[in-house]
Request: fold
Amino acid sequence: MRIVVCVKQIIDPELPASQFRIDAESKRQRANGHPLVISPYDENALEVALTLKEKTGGTVAVVSAGEPSAISALRKGLAMGADEAALISDPALDGSDAFGLAAALARGIQKLGTPDLVLCGCESGDWADRTVGPILAEALNIPCVSFVAQVEAQDGRLRMRRVVEEGYEIWEGAPPLLLTILSHESNVPRYPKVKDIMTASRRSIPTWSAADLGVEAGDIGKAAMRTEVQQLTLPSRESRCELLDGEPAQQVATLITKLRERKAI
Amino acid sequence: MDLGLSPRQEMFRDMVRDFAEKEVAPRAAAVDAEARFPAQTIRMMGELGLMGVAIPAEYGGAGADTICYVIAIEEISRACASTGVIMSINNSLVCDLIYKFGDEEQKRRFLIPLARGEQLGCFCLSEPDAGSDAGNLRVTALAEGDHFVLNGAKNFITNGKEADIAIVFATVGRHLKHKGISALIVEKGTPGFQVLKEESKLGIRGSSTCQLLFEQCRVPRENLLGEIGEGFRIAMVSLDGGRIGIAAQAVGIARAALEASLEYARGRVQFGRPIAAFQAIQFLLADMATRIDAARLLTYRAASLRDCGAPYTKEGSMAKLSASEVAMWVTTKAIQIYGGYGYITDYPVERHFRDAKVTEIYEGTSEIQRLVIAGHLLG
Reply:
């Protein structure tokens, strides 16, 4: 099976909220030299791919559309066990929304060769809009199964456990497919081994521009924007103290009413 | 002059930090409280390649450099100083030593499982009457046919209880003084080799520190490392490398104390303000961070010289001296910032304080480091 995993490099989401800074003009988080990591669900997706490869054979490629710095995310992918990596990076991608990124990723994935399976994290650790995967499936013209926690390969077909609000659903399908992956105990990302880090650091990773991929200028960047960020602000935090009157029984009743009003219980 | 890490070293650091935060740190308090050897963690570290970081891949190691090695020791020790020293001994005093001085057969037989983390090693130099005076050994290794017969006791041996392989320094004749000291590889289970006593310690309580006894312990001649009489030189060369590891361990402990202090100072409110708002605390934090950075840079310099193949004895001693004393100072101040909470075991800084002390003692006390440095200055 030929598997491609899309990875996004983001500012470490574990960063304390006090260090979160917003660039007013671009309406994005400022990098400010903070550590950059692979978006967490993308690492789960990569783990799913590597586990499938170990069980059924085949290859795993990692691809990213982003800043040149994303090369380090791809190197980590190689160190974890991916066979191949490619970066799509071009100033023309600046300002791309999910549609622009999916257009570029689709071309990059096709350039790597026709995949049997494309895996994405179910959402990115920064914007969390959950849209790139499904839009990418549309661009590749393959079916999409979203919010998949577990995948098993059986006789050329895939059996997927998809998490829904009420529990889970079991889906089956034959490749080609695109899955968006949730975290699960079965896909905890492995640590790359030191010798694999050393090997990955010596690998050359191709960087493709929009022109290399034949992406039309109108399909990426601001020109292709179908969504717009109106405002990005830090959530305000308030703390208030309220003393409840009455006897304990009455205080408890009031407390329950107030908690219910705030949907806390 | 570039003082930054390469992308490869950064990726390595990120992996070790991630591993240390998720797998090592959560167990550190229990490892200390129960004086429990972190066997599961050490096994995982072996699988990742952290038990033979700078050993070439052909001998079971990860094929990284000394800078990567000190990065790893710092990150692991930041999470758990006990785990840091177990790793440090295996890497720099056992694997490096066999790699440098062992013959091909010894490398194949002993180094590969040690560097892969399938086995653990210990380094047996100190004796009850020979600590800093390492040339004055009393354990004897008398040649008898195709064997050496070991007799005597070794003291304060880190990893002594769990080690599968012991590098034992012994004299073939006390009258020869330094020139009689020889190094032997002794396997666990060799008749006449036993762990006599495990010490109860102030810090690094998750690593064992043992007294080992050798009684008519017959070691095959092919287990001799280097030549007869070369042992003192082998020990000193090994300790040069070991000191870089202990420096990195001290930096890791100090960093853990600083990070804990920063978090506490931001959250602890007194007189209506977080104590971080008070200049008295700010000055302490600034001094802690500055001293840690200086110690780390000294450590990186020594590691970098080693990677270049340049002499680094003086620089290794400077790094170890500086980092260990910084660790002691920083952890003392961390407790001061915490106040009463720093003195109780609910918070981590008292553990960092206890762990820091030994870095001023083992692999050469601060006084020995000063002698080494002064010796180089005065020629």
Remarks:
- The longest helix of chain B spans residues 231-267.
- The radius of gyration of chain B is 21 Å.
